[in-house]
Amino acid sequence: MAYTLxxxxxxxxxxxxxxxxxxNIFNAKKNVPLILFFGxxxxxxxxxxxxxxxNLYLNFVVFLIANFLFAYLMFDCTKTAALIxxxxxxxxxxxxxxxxxxxLTVVMGTELKDYRSTDFMYFLFIFxxxxxxxxxxxxxxxxxFLFNKKSNTKTPVWLIIYPICTIFVYxxxxxxxxxxxxxxxxxxxxIFACLISIVAIAATYLLYNQSIKKELAxxxxxxxxxxxxxxxxxxxxxxxQNEELKKFVHDEKNHLxxxxxxxxNIEILNYIDDIYNDLQQYSTSGKTNNKMLDLxxxxxxxxxxxxxxxxxxxxxxxxxxxxxxxxxxxxxSNVLDNAVEAAKNSKEKFVELSINKANGxxxxxxxxxCDTKPETSSGFLKTTKPNKEYHGIGTKSIKRIADKYNGxxxxxxxxxxxxxxxxxxx
Length: 426
Fold this sequence. Notes:
alpha+beta
């Protein structure tokens, strides 16, 4: 019974160590409780096989398969990376068990067979070896660059002081157990304390990992909010400048009319007409009857002109006037930022924006050239910008605003046409 419980506990600690390591390296496909639940289910198989079949090589193979499935199914991990990690974890498991045996025999001066002399000694050996394995997994997570992962969500190195100190205490307990005969109640208390310490360390790593990710998410949201506020301020300034320009143009047109009435010279009259027609374009009202929409479209028209991107806009039967300016700014800025960025790095270089009413729905469609198929994570587009830890919230913001106005947000990529399309229906 004690052997069975120890083996189950052994695989549980291995699963926790691996789960925390994967959380530090990869994006999770599920939330943490579901990951731990499925982790227990996946590692239950190797545990049963270990207890049923006493075959060392089979256990290594089954353990490798469990780690591969855990990485590939629960995390944003490629098959190749999952297989490499599974092999590394197998090697770490063998290495930490071998190191534990040497630590207890050579350093502590005990016999190799002593770790199986009693259930209590076997428990202590498992605590030591699995804590070493846990420590090795956490150290591995700091080499995420091997898997092209550079996010700042890893737990700090200084946290390893907890497993190191715990291993030291376990080794001391091992040594003391040879010099003193503990009563059964004390042995049970020691085992219980060891269990609590391991669970507490695992919980500390998990909570620290999640707190870092939450802080990063808050930082991203704050960055997005700051950007929206900056855009709003920019549009207010632009609107004020436009109004002043309209006043100036209106006055100048009146001056030209007066000047025109003072001469009969055909050349002068024609010249005044040319100037008048040039000024006329600055006095016309917005094309969509939605001032904020006009300002946003004009901004991206200028950006596209600067990067030689063909920018076509069709806005006739709808102008999204029901959307608050703050939300409209965030929505269109994120849609058009992504479109312009992709078009700028493509061969065709075009962005087509359409806002119209169809079958009682307001439809926003944005199609842009995009030579590279976008990557996704958990159903959302991955950012292609540098410093990915500070970006990547754009598509989430688009969906949030669409949901706020009872709309739907979809996107698709045409690999043949090299086009990316965004569809938002209200």
